[in-house]
C-alpha cells in the first residue's frame, strides 16, 4: 500500500515537472502563492478610533443623516445621492454632478472599507481624517449647499433628531462635531461583503476559476499590482503617480508642491467591488477595466513623478484576461449592506 502511494506521488511529481517545463506560462501556481494568500485574510474587527468609539445609537444616527436631504440647502441631495450601495458606494458617473448640472473635477470615490483608511482621505489627501470629510460636501455651494450653522439649526429644530442625538451622545445637544462623529461612525460600518475571493483565501479551492488564480499570481508577481493595492482592502492608503491624468490636475502635488514624486499622485483606491464602479480613476477617464489593464501594460505616461513600480509589462492577451478574471472575484455576494442591515449592539465585525 505504502509503495503504491509512493509511486503515485512520484508520478504526480513527474507530471508537475513536465507541466512546469513545457506548459504555457502561468498554468502552474506560482510557488509564492500560498505565502501571498496569507496576506489577504479578512480582519477580525472594524477599527474605530478612541476619540470616536462605536455605539449602535451613534451609527443609527449617522445612517439617518447619511440618507437625509435635510443636510442640503434645497433638500434635494444627501450623501447617498453620490455614495450609493448598488454602485459600489459611488455614483456610476465619470465625474460627480454639480448642483448646476455640470461636472466636478473629480469622480466620486467609493467609501467602502473607509474604516481601514488610516491616512488622509480624498483623491489628493485633502481631508485629514474621516471625521473632517462631511463638512465639505455639505457646505460646498456646488454640492449640498448648506452652511454648517444652518445644518445644525435645522437638526436642533427637529425633535426626532434631538432624541437621536441624546441616544447617541447622552444629551440632546446638536453640534457640528457630533454631526461629523455620527456620520463617520456609520461610514465605518460600510465594509466590503464577502466575495468569492474571500472563500478562496479561506481554503475553498473551487470558489474561483483557475484563470482568476493565475490572475492573482500576476497581480502579486509579474504585474506588481500588490505593491500598491496591498492587503485585504487592496490599498496601501498612499498616493502615487501611475502615469494617468493627462489634464492639469496634479493631485497631491498641489498640497505638497516641493515633492516631485507627488505630482500627479492620487490615492490608491480599494479594488473591492471594483467591477461595480466604472468608469475608473480620479477623473473617470478610463471607461472599463480592460482600459485600466491596458494603461498598466503600457506603463502610463513616463515622467519624473511616475512611481518606480510602474513599468511597461508586456502582458500577453491571456494574462490580461487572467487579471480581469481575478478582479471579478472581488465583487461581494449577497443583498444586505450597511444601509439595510441591522446595526450591531457592539463594535461590528467585517
Ligand atoms: C455630488 C456628489 C457627492 C455628494 C452628495 C457627497 N459626496 Fe462624498 N465625495 C464626492 C467626491 C467627488 C469625492 C472626492 C473629493 C476629493 O477627493 O476631493 C468624495 C469624497 C468622499 C469621501 C472620501 C473617500 C476617500 O476614499 O477618500 C468620503 C468619506 C465622503 N465623500 C463622504 C461623504 C459624505 C459623508 C457625504 C454627505 C455629507 C458625501 N460624501 C456627499 C462626491 C459626493
Ligand atoms: C504605484 C502604485 C500602483 C500600482 C503598482 C498599481 N496601482 Fe492601480 N492604482 C493606483 C493608484 C494611485 C490609482 C488611482 C489613480 C488615479 O485615480 O489617477 C489606481 C487605480 C486603479 C484602478 C481603478 C480603480 C478605481 O476605482 O478607479 C484599478 C482597477 C487598478 N488600479 C488596478 C491595478 C492593477 C490591476 C495593477 C497591476 C497591473 C495596478 N493597479 C497597479 C496605484 C497603483
From TrEMBL:
SUPFAM superfamilies: Cytochrome c (SSF46626)
Annotated GO MF terms: cytochrome-c peroxidase activity
Species whose genome carries this gene: Methylobacterium aerolatum
Domain Cytochrome c residues, every copy: 210-331
Keywords for this protein: Heme, Iron, Metal-binding, Oxidoreductase, Periplasm, Peroxidase, Signal
Enzyme class: oxidoreductase
Enzyme Commission number, as recorded: 1.11.1.5
Keyword Endoplasmic reticulum: no
Superkingdom field: Bacteria
Pfam families: CCP_MauG
Entries under InterPro entries matching the protein: Cyt_c-like_dom (IPR009056), Cyt_c-like_dom_sf (IPR036909), Cytochrome_c_Peroxidase/MauG (IPR051395), Di-haem_cyt_c_peroxidsae (IPR004852), MauG/Cytc_peroxidase (IPR026259)
The protein's name in its UniProt record: Cytochrome c peroxidase
Localization, UniProt: Periplasm
